[in-house]
Amino acid sequence: MRSTFAGLNTMVRGIYSNQLSLDTTGHNITNASTEGYSRQSVNLAATRGQAVSSLYGDVIVGTGVDSTSILRARNVYADKQYWQETAQKEYYTTQQTNYDKVEAIFDDSSKTGIKNALTEFYNAWTDLSTNASTASNRVAVIEKSNVLADRIKTVAGQLQSQINAQYENMRANVKQINDYTTELTKLNQNIMQTEASGGSANDLRDQRDLIVDNLSKYMNLNVYEDDHGMYSVVSNGITMVNGVNRLTLEMSTAINNKTYGISDYTVNIKESGIAFVPTNGSMKAQIDTIAEDKGYIDKLAHMSGFLLTTFNTMHQQGAGIDGTDSSFGNDDGTDTYKGPSYGVNYWGDDNTLYTWDATDEVVKAVELKDIKRTVEVDDTQTDASGNTIRTPKVTIGGTQVSETTLDGINIINALAVNTAIKETGGQNLIAARKLVVEQNVSDTGALENGYSVKVNGSGDGTNATNIATLINMDQANVHSTSYIVYNATTTGGTTKLMDMADDTMTTDNMKYRALDVDSLNAYYSAAVSKLGSDSESVDDKSDAQDQLIEQITNWRSSTSGVDWNEELSNMIMFQKGYSACSRCLTTMDEMLDRLINSTGTVGR
């Protein structure tokens, strides 16, 4: 039997339902600009009807409407796609930032870069080759050499600073990641408790998804939801968050890296001590860019190694303008030798022999004492016609004091003009002249049997020309006027530092070079060109990724975003519904008032 007041209850339910829908619409409108907010809507359902007798049996009369839940509009598949592509986007963005900084370090647009220093260094040697006896030309070579070495060291130092800055950013990122994972566990717990009664913690879920959005910037991740509504966040096979539990990231203690003159760090999982290596996101990009920046230090080290080895070897094949040419001969390392100097380092320590180890890509620095230099004619080779080829052969030897392996920043730090050359009058030691083989001549001017090594006149700059070709010519176009053999006397006897088994009239420093077959200028230009090409490639990838993220964001917004037109339409609809239910309730109330208070009063 339907009650007298059943209609009133129906309208009350309608009023409550429209009021709840109107409140939810207001919640949507006020949060339209809230980051991470998802549009919410009330799910309405007709309540159970009541059976009422009729002429042909019972009929079911509706009893109104009621709300079953308030749900947020969310596209799970769009979320997963967004988290995946955001990690890729941040990877490119972080790389892009690093490239911008490295390009600024290698900026050759002004006259303060390495390129300009190389050009002036080459011009100085070229000027010296035209007139090797002019003091100003020799001083200019030293000045430009100092500038080149300083530029290389400055750039290397800036790269070290960039690496250190990257590590500091990583430290800040690790702290932020830990903050996010802590918030996730708290939200997981609050969501589980809120939804235990069957409701849906929509606003808390929005906050949690926003945190996952931010977390995806730092690493690749996969998100799984359990039966209790709690998230598990997995990155590279490691579960960072599991319900109310989480792992903590930490930076390792400083690892002294002598190769690059910096302190390295790794990101570890505190609870297990194992390294955490993401496969995407800004954290991965920082790890990769640090390795790349070290690669640029390696390139500078190769350039410095080339100067310390191949360049020095070419310089050792010439003679300075100090001493007396008529006294040229073997130098026993004492003051008794009065001839011009030869076999002298231009770069590095005066008492150290530098050789390039092509296998390990390092410089072997052998310190000697009691250094002796000898010069002789090598006549062991012939040309295609069988004629003897006579070549000056310089041997540098002494007692080995120590042997040091230089790599990375240590090669760069060793790059400095020989202090003996930088001293007052030391410019005369610059070996611009070449060594030549001449047939012996008697006092009367008649040719005699035998040959000896001599030096050209003081104005000769042939060896300076040969040295200059190292800067702009590749290996195939560089020619030695003589060759060097290095020997170091040890306890066990004499040890050859340079292998001359191939009889190529050149030392291994000329054959196995730090720059392979490239010239100094070409090697640097190739490195800078690759930097520009890589930077441009990352810019293109970043732009394409930005467009993809924009599409995914629009995809998500089409589902979860608040549409003002839609919400205003809903507001009008629910307002009209509320008014209609209220009006209907008033009408029913008037009918019942007439029935209860006015019926049966006729005739009083």
Could you explain the architecture of this structure?
- This protein is α+β, with helices and mostly antiparallel strands.
- The chain has helices at 6-30, 76-105, 114-130, 135-194, 202-215, 281-316, 409-414, 419-422, 462-472, 508-511, 520-560, 564-598; strands at 40-46, 50-54, 57-61, 65-72, 222-225, 231-235, 238-242, 245-246, 249-251, 255-257, 262-264, 267-269, 318-319, 352-357, 362-382, 388-406, 433-441, 447-455, 483-490, 493-496.
- The strands form seven sheets. Strands 14-15-16-19-20 form a five-stranded mixed β-sheet. The protein has a four-stranded antiparallel β-sheet with strand order 5-6-7-8.
- α4 runs antiparallel to α5 (202-215).
SSE blueprint and pairings:
Elements lengths: L5 H25 L9 E7 L3 E5 L2 E5 L3 E8 L3 H30 L8 H17 L4 H60 L7 H14 L6 E4 L5 E5 L2 E5 L2 E2 L2 E3 L3 E3 L4 E3 L2 E3 L11 H36 L1 E2 L32 E6 L4 E21 L5 E19 L2 H6 L4 H4 L10 E9 L5 E9 L6 H11 L10 E8 L2 E4 L11 H4 L8 H41 L3 H35 L6
Parallel strand pairs: 16-19
Antiparallel strand pairs: 1-4, 2-3, 5-6, 6-7, 7-8, 9-12, 10-11, 13-17, 14-15, 15-16, 17-18, 19-20
Helix pairs in contact: 1-12, 2-4, 2-6, 2-11, 3-4, 3-9, 4-5, 4-6, 6-9, 6-11
Q: What is the helix tally?
A: 12
Distance between the termini: 32 Å
Low-confidence stretches: 498-506
Average of per-residue pLDDT values:
89
Q: What structural class do the secondary elements suggest?
A: alpha+beta
Which geometry do the CA atoms define?
Answer: rod-shaped
Q: Name the beta content range.
A: 15-25%
Placed side by side, the strands forming the largest sheet appear as 14-15-16-19-20
Helix content percent band = 40-55%
Biggest sheet architecture: 5 strands, mixed
Question: How many E-type strands?
Answer: 20
